[in-house]
Amino acid sequence: MSYKAVLADVDGTLISPGLFPPPPPSLRLKKAVKECQKKGVVFGLATARSLMGVKELVEELDLQSPIILDNGALIFDCKEKKYLWESLLPKKEAQKTINYLQEDKSLRVFVVDDEVRLNDLSKVIKWKISKIVVMDVTQKKAEKIYQHIKKNPFVHVTKSISKAQPLRLSIHVTNIQATKQVAVLKLAEHLKIDTKEIIAVGDSSNDLPLFLACGLKVAMGNATADIKEMADIIAPTYEEDGVAWVIEKYILKKNQNSKIKIQKSNQIQNSKKFNNLHNLSGEKKDQVLILVDKAGRLIGEASREDCHIGQGKAHLAFMAFIQDADGKIILTKRSKRKSLWNDFWDASVISHVLPGETVIEAAKRRGKEELGVEVDFRDLGAFYYFAPHGDSAENEYCHVLIGKTKKVVEPNTVEISEIKKMDCNQITEELRKHPNAFTPWFKLSLEKFDLEKSL
């Protein structure tokens, strides 16, 4: 694979966590970045820090490309010295988060309001907030704060290591669309490259969205367990110049005989059974789907594009309704990135069954990819439908599944723009008032199956 960009986190990846200002990069890293950029390959940052927190690194490394800041809320062009994109917290959600955090007087909290870091939250005036940060809390307290804020479907919250000795975490709160994942998609569009051509290097939980968007996922040797589990490769630690090692090996093609650790889990994912998994950076036209007849009998395979263009080809799909701990059904609004019925309300999880999967396996996979939860589903049955949409169509034999979760869902913003939770009576009333706000298959499924009795 010929990679066209490398995106590296800062704290715990390039430098020891929590050092302000950041220390000068090593001569090895400076040389590697210089040679990388000379080859025409982008080297950028994807960090929770604001511009003021990486200014010295940008200058020392002579970065010429856009960088991702504030955990994905901002993209700054180092060459043109201007912001290319922003996704700020709505004032209402920022106020709600600040009010909650102010209940604990022991917390160190700051906000970045129009590029100004404010430790005194009463001095927020412009409400152009890119992030709210809780600094240096214990793991126990971080988890409590994280779980509380995570319940708000309009914000994105992550954790990162802010100190190594003793171990302390920080909590980062941004707009729901302000994630490293979404920012990578915006950056790739600007650079006119495919996200599969990007190498991501990270160490902490707030790098999970970064990994979701990029082609090669590299965890530092000092990375947290969740990052290492998702990674394709384990690099040396930041103390051993792990990022320089990545550039040398994958861009400059040096150290070809050096030993690397390849994650077993990803070796399995690269097997034939899973070689057509969804790219979480969006829909894959060449993804292979299962062709069926109108009775659901398997008759072959075809690309996703062929299954949807014109009148399409009948293929195997599913839609799943998930009930939360309060007995409400989770409904999702399809992302504007969707090629069909974007911005329409739908069931909790909707997707295709891929070769080598059962319907239940496909639903469990997409539950984790779209909502961040693993659910045990039950299959209620299936129906065939055809629904034209401009020059394309949905032509599916669709299974209807139900399941329950007590966990807080975390929508993948590439797939889902919004969620809401309703009981069956509320869904019926909403359908009566706004029938055109829902996808055709959603309405058909409720005509054919009694959801309330099935749950």
Mean pLDDT: 89
* Share of helix, binned: 25-40%
Largest pleated sheet = 7 strands, mixed
How many domains, as an integer? 3
Terminal CA distance reads 47 Å
Q: Structural class, please?
A: alpha+beta
Evaluate the radius of gyration: 23 Å
- Indicate the low-confidence ranges by residue numbers: 264-281
From the spread of the alpha carbons, the general shape counts as: globular
Features:
single chain, 455 residues, alpha+beta, Rossmann fold, Hypothetical Protein, Haloacid Dehalogenase-like Hydrolase, Chain: A, domain 2, Nucleoside Triphosphate Pyrophosphohydrolase, 3 domains, seven-stranded mixed sheet, 14 helices, 23 strands, 28% helix
Topology:
Blueprint (H helix, E strand, L loop, with lengths): L4 E4 L18 H12 L3 E4 L5 H11 L4 E4 L4 E4 L4 E5 L4 H11 L6 E6 L2 E3 L10 E9 L1 H12 L4 E9 L4 E8 L4 H12 L6 E5 L5 H6 L2 E4 L5 H6 L2 E2 L7 H9 L10 E2 L1 H6 L18 E5 L5 E6 H5 L6 E9 L5 E6 L10 E2 L2 E4 L6 H13 L5 E13 L2 E13 L11 E7 L1 H10 L6 H9 L2 H4 L1
Parallel strand pairs: 1-2, 1-11, 11-12, 12-13, 17-22
Antiparallel strand pairs: 3-4, 4-5, 6-7, 6-8, 8-10, 9-10, 13-14, 15-16, 17-18, 17-20, 18-19, 18-23, 21-22
Helix pairs in contact: 1-8
Quick rundown:
The protein is an alpha+beta fold.
